[in-house]
Amino acid sequence: MAVLFEIVGSIVIGGLLLLNIIRLNAQVTDEQLRSTLRDIAQRDVLTLGDVLRYDLLRAGNGVTNVGLTPPIVTANPNEIAFNAAYDSLGAGTVIRVRYYTQPNTATPDPTDFKIFRYRNTGGGETTLMAESANQFDVTYYNASGMYLGGAADGLTTVTTAVASSDLQVIARIRVAIEAKNPIALDDASTTAVDERKLTQAEWITTVAPPNLNRLVN
C-alpha cells in the first residue's frame, strides 16, 4: 500500500510539474507574441512618421503666390492640410496633402481612430496610414517658437485650431503619434483593450519646413 501511495504521489507531483511547465511555456509564448505585435506596431508608426515628415518638409515648396495658394490650408489639433510641389510630379505642380482622422468602431477600444493621408492627385488618392491610433496631435509655432494653436504640447493646455490670420506665419510643426496593433492576444472585450496597450508605440518630432521659414521671413 505504501508503494502504491508513493506511486500515486509521484504521479500527482509529476502532473503538477508538467502543468507548471505548460503554463510557463504559455506565458513565454504570449510574451513572444506581444513582442512581435509590438514590433509590428513600432514599424508601422515609424513608417507613418517617415512619410509624414517627408511631406511636412515639402510644405510650401513651389508656392509662389501665398495669397492665391497658401502653404498651410488647415491647422487643427488633429488635422493638417498644406500645399506642396513634388519633383516626381513635375516642376511647378503644386498639390494638396491632408492628414486627418476618423473613428474606428471595429476595435473594442472606443478611443481608437484611423489616420488617413489624402493627396488630390488625379481623382484623389486616400491612403490608410494607421488603423488603430489613439494619438495624432499636431501643434503649430511661429519662427520665434510661440504657440499658435493645435494640440497641447506640455507647455500649454490650450487646444484650438490656428486662426486663419496666423496660417501664413506657421514655421514649425510638432507631431505626436501613438498607435497600437489592432490584434489582441485575448479578444474578450474586457481584456482586449488592456492587452493591446502592451503593443502600442509612439513617434514624436518637430519639423521646420524650409519653405515655410522662407515664406515667413
Index terms:
single chain; 217 residues; alpha+beta; 33% helix
| Total number of helices | 3
Element-by-element helix/strand order: HEEEEEEEHEH
DSSP strand count: 8
Beta-strand portion reads: 25-35%
Alpha carbon gyration radius: 25 Å
> Would you tell me the structural class of the helices and strands?
alpha+beta
| Envelope shape | globular
State the distance separating the first and last CA atoms. Answer: 96 Å
Average of pLDDT: 77
Uncertain segments are 1-28
Largest sheet: 8 strands, antiparallel
Helix content: 25-40%
Describe this structure in words.
This protein has 217 residues and is an alpha+beta fold. 33% of the residues lie in helices and 30% in strands. The chain is built from three helices and eight strands; from the N terminus they run αβββββββαβα. Strands 1, 2, 3, 4, 5, 6, 7 and 8 form an eight-stranded antiparallel β-sheet that branches. The radius of gyration is 25 Å and the shape is globular.
Topology (SSEs and partners):
Blueprint lengths: L1 H55 L15 E5 L2 E7 L8 E10 L9 E7 L5 E17 L5 E4 L21 E8 L9 H9 L3 E7 L2 H7 L1
Antiparallel strand pairs: 1-2, 2-3, 3-4, 4-5, 5-6, 5-7, 7-8
Q: Short summary of the structure?
A:
This protein is of the alpha+beta class and 217 residues long. 33% of the residues lie in helices and 30% in strands.
